[in-house]
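cron nightly-structures :: item 1 of 1
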Amino acid sequence: MQPMKSPAGFLSAAAAAYEKRRLSVNYAVSRVLTVLLRTVFLIGMSFVMLYPVIYMLSSGFKSLQDVYNPTVVWLPQNFSLEPMKIALEVLDYTRSVGKTLTMTLPSVLLQLVTVLLAGYGFARFRFRGKKLLFGLLIFTIIVPVQTYIIPLYVNFRNFNFFGIGSLVGLFTGAPLTTNLLNKDILFYLQALLGMGIRSGLYIFMLRQFFRNMPLELEEAAMIDGCGPLRTFTRIMLPNAGSMIATVLVFSLVWYWNDYYLSSMFYNGTFPISVNLTSLSSLLDNSNMVTGIAQQELTFMRESILACGCLVTILPLLVLYIFAQRFFTEGLERSGIVG
């Protein structure tokens, strides 16, 4: 026979069981609340980020009847491609995108080469003035381009080939200069010389990435007879694929969306970002659109603007869908958060 427990033993066992049950219930409630709050937060953030795209898709394909109908809010009752057709016509979409691509793609590739070399140099090599140069790099990230746009404009308006033209002028009497405005080469030069759009940020990101890579990789390569350049091209670059994809995505987005520099340095045929900002004013000119009255054009303005924004960001959305995995991995491995 089992010995009978004393009343104190029964009370102690009951108290322990109650406390265990209470902790279990509290844990379950806290876990449910955590999941609920996390779900609400993610849904809310997703809505905030997706709302502009949803709004463009909703407003961009409304017919004139839907614009007149106050009951139509999100889903068009009469699907129409007329706003899209007008937006493409006013934006001169084919020429604008062609101009954007000729400016963007070479600049991005040249910038990628420059920032990779500079980021690896800051991460792995010791040289005199390294801290000073890195401080100037941070300075280029902090200082906005508006503070030095006037000397930059004058420099490209009278480009003297990095001082060589001025030396020629000492013998000829007139400096040798050329006008680079309204030419893509001025963006290529800035990208190649490390002063492209956001180059300082990319160099900083790559520096952080290469610093986090193990030194044993380079030591093993040097033992096998690889020099610094061969180690960089054969060892470091193949392991930096995700970071290269991240820099490419960032660079493409910023060059594609650039308005300030493009509007300053170009005239005549503008990139798509500049045409988009002037789309509203272009719609006021009835000569820009054929076959539609000015009054109808005024009522369809919101739909046309939505279509203009949609076709402008569409290439970037497609790019991000394919590069999302590399983009996220590159940010994580660079050590930059927030």
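cron nightly-structures :: done
The CA atoms of residues 233 and 297 lie 56 Å apart.
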